[in-house]
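Full entry
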Amino acid sequence: MSDRPAFQPSTLVIHSNRVYESQSNSILFPIHQTATYVHETVGVTKGYGYSRGANPTVNALEQSIAAIEGSVSALCFRSGMAAISTLCLALLKAKDHVILSEVIYGGTTRLFQQVLGNFAVDYTFVDTSDLAAIEQAIRPNTRMIFIETPANPTLKLTDVKAVAELAHSHENILVAVDNTFLTPLLQNCLALGADISMLSTTKYIDGHNATIGGSLASHDETNMERLRFVRKILGTIQAPFDAWLTIQGIKTLPARLAMHCSHAGEVAEWLEKHPRVAKVYYPGLESFPQRELAKKQQSAFGGMLAFELNASTDESLRFMEALKLCTCAESLGSVETLITNPATASHCDLSQELRDRLGISDRLIRLSVGLEAPQDLIADFEQAFEVVFGGAK
C-alpha cells in the first residue's frame, strides 16, 4: 500500500510530486524532453538510461497518479488504449480467457475482437452487473475480468467489490477496472478490491483536451514490474511533454470534479423533466435503477450522462447539430461540454442488433458536462429544441 501523507485530495494533487529542479528551483517540474541520458560511469546511471523505459517528467506524473490511486506506483502510457493493450500483452498469454463487461468502450471491444483474438486470447462479453452471469462465464483458463463502471455510454454500473470477491474466490483471476468516467477520487477501485485500475488520462486527469494518455496502477509490485518491462519493449510510455501538461491538469482535478458533478446533476434533472426527452441515464437521478450501488461505491455521481429524445434518429442528430455551446466531439472529461452519438462514433463497429440489445440505440446521446454555467448549457438545449421541434411540446 502507499505510504503517502494523509492529505486531502486537493492538497495531494498539488504536492504529491513536488520536486524542484536542482539548478533553478523551478516551481514547475521541468520537461525532460530527451531520448537518452549520460552515464556517470560505464554502466552507471542516475536511474534513467533511455526514455523508452523511463523519463523523469513521466515519473513525476506517475507519482501523482499513484497518490490518488493509493498505490505504491503507477505507470503512464501513450494513450488509454496503449495502457489496456500493454496490460493484456503483459499479463495474458495464448488460450487465456477474459471476461469483459458487455457495455464497454468501443476501442476495448475492437482490441479483443480484431487484435487479441488473432493471438488466441479468448474472451466473453458478459452483463457484469449480474454476478451469476459472471460466475457462469468463468472457465478453468479465465485469467482476467475486465470491467468498466460506469459503462460507456449507458452508465450501467458493476459492483466492483462483489466482482473482486467472486474473482478472488477462484485461482489466478485478476480484476481490472476502467475507471475513466470517475477517476480514483470519486471511485477508488483498488480500495474496493480490484487488482488493477486503468485510466484514460486524456479525460478528467488532464481535463483540458490537451493530451492523449493512459495509466495503470496496482498494489501488486510483481505485476507492475512486468507491466513496466513490457511497456519498455513495446515503447508505449507516455511522451514527456504530454506528461508535463497532464501534471498541470491533475492539480485542479478535485475542483473540476466537484463542478462537473454539480453541473451534470443539474442538467440531468432538467433534461428528465423536459417533454421532448424520453429517458435520462445518470446515477444521481432517483429514476436510475442502480442508484443505491452508485451511492455505495462512488463518492459522487460524476459528470457523464446520456439521454434519448422522444424523436426519430434523424431529429436526434439534428438536435445535436443545432447546439451552439455544447461541442460535438469525441472524448469526455474536459472543461468544455462535449456531446456525441455513440452509434456513429465510439460504438460504430457494433452491429445494429447488438447496439439495440445493449441499450446503445441510434438515438442515444452521450453528454460530458463541462464547467460552463448550467443555466447557459440549459439555454443551449432550449434553443436547439426550438430549432428542431419548434419548442417543448
About this structure: Residues 253-389 form a domain with the Aspartate Aminotransferase, domain 1 fold (CATH 3.90.1150.10). The two ends are 56 Å apart (CA to CA). The chain has 14 helices and twelve strands. The chain has two domains: 9-250, 253-389.
